[in-house]
Design brief:
359 residues, alpha/beta, Rossmann fold, 16 helices, five-stranded parallel sheet, binds iron/sulfur cluster, six-stranded mixed sheet, globular, 2 domains
């Protein structure tokens, strides 16, 4: 299949790993930001082919993982109400709250439904005018345009019983927090190709200059990731720092203008709480006042729900690349995909789940 087979070609993979080996003269620590990239690295065992000098650090780019426990509790609070149909993508169903998850309250009678698109949630609202239908809008810049479009569609169709519980986060502010940490060992980044497909890459160029760190926009197949690593290592070895675009078959400098237009029509940038990291200034989206009737936090008046993260789960350290999943005492013991203690063990993009399945 074009754009798949050639990016999984074992000969190209071997050539690239040889080339990386030839140019690597000293240790380098590179963070792949996206959980999808982490899973590809684990699935294709790419670390085994790299020189020992290269350490890959897994980043915070798993939307389910960075959604704070507080937001999960808000979701469970709303979903437990008898006049609500709560809709969500499948990954969020099993993220543990304090005592329950969405799947367990569904088993107890709550009307929680898995959907494949926020527009499906709008359709459910149209078919159930006597219920309040809520969509759990979670994700990075990648999912924000479609979620914003559902609000525009609800407005256009005069749907009054639809709202979104929003937990949208943005990549560049998280990179700045990671690089501002004096303990950070990160020397280069693989930026997430799908995020840049929407946003473009111009917003990363000031970060490259400010922190003097190479950032390479990178895709998700084995050849993509190895090319991204090659370009990053080459810059590091040559003492250069610039923004490079490995994923040029998809990503342009300014991204998708239509997607950004709908996104910024509905959302505005705000401070946002990240799981285990805390509040990062200007790192998320909230619904603009002109669409406040679609904001579930306002519709259900749940702003007083405040919850701290559980101590036994070190998701914050995992998400910042400070520890690997196997350094968590609960990994593979109390915490497994069947009985997760934290979101990184649930999500298909979570580092803990990746290590559990592939290591
Ligand atoms: S292994 Fe489980 S408890 Fe430990 S950090 Fe990962 S999700 Fe949290």
């Amino acid at each position: 299949m074009k754009y798949i087979d050639e990016y999984r070609d074992s000969k190209i993979v071997k050539n690239l790993t040889n080339e990386i080996g030839e140019i690597t003269t000293r240790p380098w620590s590179i963070m792949e930001i996206c959980g999808g990239q982490t899973h590809s690295i684990m699935k294709y065992n790419l670390e085994e082919f790299l020189p020992d000098k290269i350490q890959l650090i897994h980043g915070p780019g798993c939307p389910v993982c960075v959604t704070p426990l507080e937001k999960i509790e808000k979701a469970i609070n709303i979903a437990s109400r008898s006049d609500v149909i709560f809709t969500t993508f499948g990954d969020m169903m099993r993220v543990p709250g304090l005592n329950d998850d969405l799947l367990s309250i569904k088993a107890g009678g709550a009307d929680v439904r898995m959907v494949y698109s926020p527009l499906d949630a709008v359709k459910i609202a149209v078919k159930n005018p006597d219920k309040k239908v809520v969509f759990f809008a979670v994700g990075f810049e990648t999912t924000a345009p479609a979620n914003a479009a559902s609000v525009v569609e609800a407005e256009r169709s005069k749907v009054k019983n639809y709202s979104m519980l929003v937990s949208h986060v943005l990549v560049p502010p998280a990179i700045e927090v990671l690089l501002s940490d004096e303990a950070s060992k990160i020397e280069g980044f693989l930026a997430a190709g799908h995020v840049c497909t929407v946003m473009g890459y111009s917003e990363y160029e000031p970060i490259v200059q400010k922190f003097e760190v190479p950032i390479v926009v990178t895709g998700f197949e084995p050849v993509d990731i190895l090319q991204g690593i090659y370009l990053t290592v080459k810059q590091l070895e040559e003492n250069r720092f610039k923004l490079e675009n490995q994923y040029s078959r998809v990503v342009t400098k300014n991204g998708n203008s239509g997607a950004k237009e709908v996104m910024f029509n509905v959302f505005e940038i705000t401070d946002m709480k990240w799981r285990g990291i805390g509040t990062i200034p200007q790192s998320g989206f909230k619904i603009k006042n002109k669409y406040s009737k679609y904001d579930a936090e306002k519709v259900f008046d749940i702003n007083d729900i405040k919850v701290d993260e559980p101590e036994e789960c070190i998701a914050g350290e995992i998400l910042q690349g400070k520890k690997k999943p196997f350094e968590c005492d609960a990994f593979g013991k109390e915490c497994t995909p069947e009985h997760p203690l934290g979101a990184p063990m649930v999500s298909t993009e979570g580092a803990c789940a990746a290590y559990f399945h592939y290591k």
